[in-house]
Amino acid sequence: MIVNYPLKIVSLIPSATEIITALGLTKAMVGRSHECDYPPEIHNLPVCTQPKFNPDGSSREIHDRATELLQSALSVYLVEVETLEKLQPTHIITQAQCDVCAVSLKDVEIAVANLTKSHPQIISLQPNLLAEVWEDILRVANSLGVDGGQVISQLKKRVTACEEKTQNLPVNKIPKVACIEWSNPLMAAGNWIPELVQLAGGNSLFGEVGKHSPWLKWEELLTANPDIIIFMPCGFGLERTRQDVLELIKSSEWQNLSAAKSGKVYITDGNSYFNRPGPRLVDSLEILAEILHPELFDFGYQGIGWVNL
């Protein structure tokens, strides 16, 4: 598709903002969501969404607030219609994957229906696999009138570079890995994460490839007794994750886990990497590869994307 008019893009989800950047269209963005924080040059753009709950506090407090809204059949986020009206976007990119993670497709459609000065095209993303992320990048590129092939090719090369080093590992060198997406209540990481763990040379104990993240009982974690535990809470950076995890690991049961005994418990910047199904999922793969097989990989993410607890 060739677009013959000036692009005015609003991104309502961080992964879409990063896709737009990878496609070389950052300067075409006129608005963003309250969660879009990368790359730095988009920070001064008008913010078009707001949470309806207090996003500060512990994982339990945040979970309870969001759950209360959803159970009341209310949206978790607000779309700033007046801001969109002023911006007059040509395209709005959103998601239809998780009502807790970002503004919903339904809310965006309602907001666009109320606009009088513009009739933007809505592009909705809903990837669950790495291949679907590539498809989304291509779809966004086509909709915006640019070529996404080169971006996808470069990302795939980095994935292949990891896979080639791990695909022939002996069974006894493949660790059992528990990836935790939320600490209270416990939730394992699903969707693309089990796939990334496998590519990085690990065996993901919880969550199924391409399926939503499952809730996890303490007993299940204790019984599985993973070799490595990696925390990647949705929306949390390193320090906030550390604070949350320090509360979790106080129990005596935790100290009996093999990963705790061996010191193989890690925290990551889930907000910047693992929770965003865009180009930086490849960075996430490389982070996992460093953690699982430091004898094979050193991409330089330690201290930035991950640290040992």
Q: What labels describe this entry?
A:
single chain, 309 residues, alpha/beta, Rossmann fold, 2 domains, six-stranded mixed beta sheet, four-stranded parallel beta sheet, 12 helices, 12 strands, globular
Describe this structure in words.
There is one protein chain. By secondary structure, the chain is an alpha/beta fold. It folds into 2 domains: 9-147, 3-Layer(aba) Sandwich (Rossmann fold); 156-308, Rossmann fold, CATH 3.40.50.1980. The protein has helices at 14-22, 59-71, 81-87, 105-113, 130-144, 149-166, 193-199, 218-224, 238-248, 252-255, 258-262, 281-292, and strands spanning 9-11, 29-32, 49-51, 77-79, 91-95, 121-125, 176-183, 186-188, 203-204, 228-231, 265-268, 306-308. The radius of gyration is 20 Å and the shape is globular.
| Average predicted confidence as pLDDT | 90
Biggest beta sheet summary? 6 strands, mixed
Tally of alpha and pi helices = 12
Question: Approximately how much beta-strand content do the residues carry?
Answer: 15-25%
User: Assembly type of the shown chains?
Assistant: single chain
Rounded Rg: 20 Å
As for the CATH topology of the largest domain, it is Rossmann fold
Please give the CATH class of the largest domain.
Answer: Alpha Beta
